[in-house]
Design goal:
With about 350 residues, the protein is an alpha/beta fold. The chain has 11 helices and 12 strands. The chain starts with 5 loop residues before the first helix and ends with a helix. It binds pyridoxal-5'-phosphate.
Length: about 350
Amino acid sequence: MPYFRSNIRSMSGYVPGEQPQGDGFIKLNTNENPYPPSPAVAVAVNEALQHGLQKYPDPMAGAFCRRASELLGVPPDWILAGNGSDDILTIVTRALVGEGQLLRLPYPSYILYRTLADLQGARSEEVHFEPDWTLPEAFGRGSDDLRLVFLANPNSPSGTVVPPEAVLELAQRLPCPLLVDEAYADFAETNCVDLVAKSEKIMVSRTLSKSYALAGLRFGYLVAQPHLIQQFVKVKDSYNCDALSIAAATAAIGDQAWLAETREKILHSRGRLMTAMRDLGFIVPDSQANFVWALHSRQGARPMYEELKRQRILVRYMVYPGWGDGLRITVGTDEEIETCVAKLQEIV
Ligand SMILES: *Cc1c(COP(=O)(O)O)cnc(C)c1O
């Protein structure tokens, strides 16, 4: 295809997890919330519909930013709303990383970061985590063309966390911005939002897909110092969030009682899943997210994944060269987890 830019022709493209459209699967493969979202979401969407959809939405999603501002303790102009946090990651990469320049990412981690670099025709440098999932010194090293560093925190697939003190120290050593992808921070004990005020190099992205049970809606946001936000606004689609999702997302973050209750249930189930998997002989790092990463000490994970799928239980099978292959299992309801663990007991 000679019409296309050479970087597009040569890249393979991001492959999202399977999304079977029929019912009948226990779906533990893409870290969705097993519980329905706050009832306030449906009320807000209905109200927005009554209002009509003939007008364009607020380009900056001001209602959302004001509510998020109260929640996070930063001014509203420190927040940029996006069509899912993948939209935010795209905006940031397009704004900061040019052709031939360098983007750094940890490994193993979220595979999309690499794709974003490829789209830019940029170079990406994967720096391996230490075996205990801490970051090596090299992750913070300066380099001439380095324009952006991504860090998923908690990380996927491991569920492990780099503590905020280490993130701040890392940012201070880096010559460029550090995007801390906090897609799973609501399930963790710590987060880095307070660091944004301490260093203009630290930016934090969040999503409503996982903790707020709104993966089907598409809403995420960035927290960064306002002079950076102003530059990112130039890069985004003018109306990157629609009226219904702005209303829904604003209502969702307004119901913190729902979040606290759902979080408790998921953390409880996560504990049970980690224990059960370890009892089955898997190596499972302590997870601070809504999934666990399980490598078997003796057996390959692929046949396990395939057999679970035949039994209509979907988990994520992942191979990371140099790290082995494993199962990333989303924390579902207690019942879903019991079923999954019982099947694994038969398989392993
Ligand atoms: C799920 C996920 C996202 C994307 O979230 P969306 O808001 O649904 O686009 C971003 N980063 C990581 C690490 C994720 O796991």
